[in-house]
Amino acid sequence: MTTQQRSSRQAVVTNQAADKQRSNFFTHALLILSSLLVSCVGIAAEAQALPVRQAYQQSQTPNLSPQSVEMLQVEAEIWHRINQHRQRHGLSPLRVNEQLTQAARAYSKQMADYNFYSHTGVRGDTPRQRVEAQGVSAQLVGENLFQFPQRGNPVTVAVQGWMGSAGHRRNILMSQMAETGIGIWKQNGTYYVTQLLVQPRATTVTTPDRPLN
Q: Quick check: helix, strand or coil at residue 142?
């Protein structure tokens, strides 16, 4: 089996009117970042990476810490690259939502821990249920997944893989989407990447797209 064949990716999108919308944004977790930086090597590379990571963290007070400084940077870079693609298509950048980041990171960890790959969790939960469990009420919910063995730059592999797939690309370039959370976990040389995207509750109902898998 080739490396390309070993890579997997999935996308899904659902729609539902919600009672209320929470999109509170918090200050970034300086204590979490400080503790992680103790084990960091490559000071010059870290200094170069800080602006994107700080922008990504500015609205976060994580409950589940990033697996490492490296994984935090990968999460931030994927967010940055996805917004570059949106802006090239005349779309507004996606805002980081701390609750979505928590849901995405926890789900990537769950897939890594239980060695599975699916939009349905080990307890039978759906993407919308995972989003709502974090207190996020949204009209439109999308989820992109990516699983691949360690090779090359994980940011490039994930983003290019998603943009090369009709379902993932549609989720990323959907104009209604306004907020996102990205979570990554690595285990036994395999990356598990989850991206959640939401359209906040609106006064007008958007016709749902057919779920993509």
A: strand
Residue 149 makes CB contacts below 8 A (sequence gap 6+) with: 3, 6, 7, 189, 190, 191
Cα-only R_g, the chain: 16
* Helices and strands (DSSP H and E) totals, the chain: 8, 5
Instruction: Report which secondary-structure segment, H or E, holds 74.
Output: helix 69-88
Evaluate whether residue 158 is within a structural domain.
yes
| Within-domain flag for 123 | yes
Cβ atoms of 12 and 212 within 8 Å: the answer is yes
Number of other CB atoms surrounding residue 56 within 10 Å: 21
Domain of 124: which CATH number?
3.40.33.10
Sequence letter at residue 25: F
For the stretch 120-158, pLDDT in tens is 999 999 999 999 999 999 999 999 999 989 777 899 999
Structure confidence at residue 200 (pLDDT): 81
CA nearest to 32, candidates 6, 78, 67, 80: 67
pLDDT digits (tens, 9 = 90+) for 15-27: 543 333 333 333 3
Partner residues linked to 73 by β-bridges: none
